Amino acid sequence: MLAIENLAKGFGPMPGEPLFQRVSLQLAPGESVAIMGESGVGKSTLLNCIAGLEPVAQGRIRLAGVDLTRLAEDDLAQLRRRQLGFVFQAFHLLPHLTLVQNVALPLWLLGQTEAHAERRARAMLERVGLARRGHDWPRHLSGGEMQRVAIARALVHEPALVLCDEPTGNLDPQRARAVLELLFEGIRASQAIGILVTHSQLAASFADRTLRLTRDGLIPEPD
Ligand SMILES: Nc1ncnc2c1ncn2[C@@H]1O[C@H](COP(=O)(O)OP(=O)(O)OP(=O)(O)O)[C@@H](O)[C@H]1O
């Protein structure tokens, strides 16, 4: 369970005008939400706060009972490795690693053996339709293929929470749809919690519900 309570965040000197405040959200395993809202309202910042990459001015973020806002940096880094998966607009694959190695990376960081990690990475690549490309390099892939690898990497360690920032922003609608199907199928199959930040109605339609971030909290978006 993810429980966000009364979160506030600002970048100026504190106490100052917050970027957003009164952000509360509860999500159970297997549930997903899309967060939309005006450019600059703080959607990516909210994702970074949830990932423990940005300090918050106020509020709590509890993942499976652990309050991320109270963890020391080392514990937070460990929790991020174990419990979080990320998918970004710009893919962020490592260019000097093969596709299998890119997908195996989260497992190596968790201390799994190379052989075991690569076996699981190959199984994930098969799930996203790239089984035969495992020894290829990211630069040889199309944008849609790169994002499929990024999805495999985000899910390979079965994280509790998958954070996605405009994951189809660089893709045409047809590729976007295929990527979103894989992403949400993967999130549901592993009973992860999915949070998707997007301006795209198509992307948002894949989540269970859509919320709009305002300066004064999250409000339900009408269907
Ligand atoms: N590290 C930072 N220091 C100072 N200001 C920042 C920092 N990061 C983000 N901001 C500011 O916070 C505001 C919100 O940025 P953010 O990227 O979260 O918005 P967004 O809703 O995701 O926007 P978009 O939809 O355009 O991607 C912006 O005005 C941005 O300039």
From TrEMBL:
<dbReference type="InterPro" id="IPR017911">
    <property type="entry name" value="MacB-like_ATP-bd"/>
</dbReference>
<dbReference type="GO" id="GO:0016887">
    <property type="term" value="F:ATP hydrolysis activity"/>
</dbReference>
<dbReference type="GO" id="GO:0022857">
    <property type="term" value="F:transmembrane transporter activity"/>
</dbReference>
<keyword id="KW-0547">Nucleotide-binding</keyword>
<dbReference type="InterPro" id="IPR027417">
    <property type="entry name" value="P-loop_NTPase"/>
</dbReference>
<dbReference type="InterPro" id="IPR015854">
    <property type="entry name" value="ABC_transpr_LolD-like"/>
</dbReference>
<dbReference type="InterPro" id="IPR003593">
    <property type="entry name" value="AAA+_ATPase"/>
</dbReference>
<dbReference type="Pfam" id="PF00005">
    <property type="entry name" value="ABC_tran"/>
</dbReference>
<dbReference type="GO" id="GO:0005524">
    <property type="term" value="F:ATP binding"/>
</dbReference>
<dbReference type="InterPro" id="IPR003439">
    <property type="entry name" value="ABC_transporter-like_ATP-bd"/>
</dbReference>
<feature type="domain" description="ABC transporter">
    <location>
        <begin position="2"/>
        <end position="223"/>
    </location>
</feature>
<dbReference type="GO" id="GO:0005886">
    <property type="term" value="C:plasma membrane"/>
</dbReference>
<dbReference type="InterPro" id="IPR017871">
    <property type="entry name" value="ABC_transporter-like_CS"/>
</dbReference>
<protein>
    <submittedName>
        <fullName>ABC transporter ATP-binding protein</fullName>
    </submittedName>
</protein>
<keyword id="KW-0813">Transport</keyword>
<keyword id="KW-0067">ATP-binding</keyword>
